[in-house]
Amino acid sequence: MASASVSSLSSIFSSSKPLSSTRTKSSDSPFFLQSSSSSRRQFLKGSTVLLPLTTLIPLHSPPPSLAKEVEVGSYLPQSGSDPNFVLFQASSKDTPALRAGNVQPYQFVLPPTWKQLRIANILSGNYCQPKCAEPWIEVKFEDEKQGKVQVVASPLIRLTNKPNATLEDIGSPEKIIGSLGPFVTGNTLDLDEELLETSIEKIGDQTYYRYVLETPFALTGSHNIAKATAKGNTVILFVASANDKQWPTSKKTLKAIVDSFNV
User: Which residue ranges does the record annotate as region Disordered (predicted)?
Assistant: First the structure.
């Protein structure tokens, strides 16, 4: 199951698109016509008024240039701690896991120019709530010049049999990232070579493990800053990623985003 999930992640990391409306592909459309010339002739003979086939048959999805891209600054409130950011507060209307009560509400700041990405159904956990056996992606945001962030959730039972376990109950920072790393990178994670730093942070009663990773072969980006915590029935991992071109100018921004994350 894990290998299938990682394979699915690989495909979505290479094809994520901003939230948009898409038209039905021709093979799924009730107006889809077989390609044989005889079928098409029969159709044309029975038609009194002929319309262009492209009017009846959506052969392709709209090009990316026609997708509606909305910057988060147009609908999210300004952050109270820094006017250069807006605040995203996840609620039950945002993800299947939040609606099912499997994930506690979380929040983080974003630059106002970032855009939310669509999550494929198989990766969102929508198909398996409320009893998912594998990690899923909660939300994902991106800016082409700065990088991307995502929230990855894992059922607690995948890491421990203890109900309502804390991070300390589960194990070390290395154990957490070792279990969830492939779902962060989209392929693999070599702890010996790619995990640069770990640290532990306390916010109130909540413990967070922090990570700095350099992952040259990751589909998400070669530079990653991450933060993990456990609450209720899930472990939540928040990851900010950038490629080599984005990293020099965006690392301070990505660090500020990760710093702001809390459950």
Answer: 1-34
Adjacent-strand bridge partners of 203? 206
- pLDDT tens, position by position, 125-145: 888 998 898 999 999 999 999
User: Is residue 130 reached through a cis peptide bond, with omega within 30 degrees of 0 on the bond before it?
Assistant: yes
Q: Which two tokens stand for residue 203?
A: 């916010």
Backbone dihedral angles phi then psi of residue 233, each to the nearest 5 degrees: -100, 10
β-strands 147-155, 136-143: how paired?
antiparallel
Backbone angle region of 261, left / alpha / beta, with phi > 0 → left and psi within -120 to 50 → alpha: beta
Sign for the pseudo-dihedral over CA of 113, 81, 240, 88:
negative
Express each pLDDT in 154-211 by its tens digit.
Answer: 999 899 999 889 999 999 999 999 999 887 788 889 999 999 999 999 999 999 999 9
Q: What is the DSSP letter of 105?
A: -
pTM score, whole prediction: 0.73
